[in-house]
Amino acid sequence: MNTSTCCPRCHHELDEGPIMYRCSHCRRAVYAADLENEYVPRTPVAA
Prior knowledge:
By secondary structure, the chain is an alpha+beta fold. Helix content is 15%, strand content 21%. The protein contains 1 helix and 3 strands. The longest helix has 7 residues, at 32-38.
């Protein structure tokens, strides 16, 4: 997992971890196992 993981909902940086992350902006709790399914990168990576 990245050290700067972003919230799937509001794209702010997540706190805490490594099992459960919390977003201080939208107050959402996200499990690390769910990040792989919900994670959407902020910007597309150029190939």
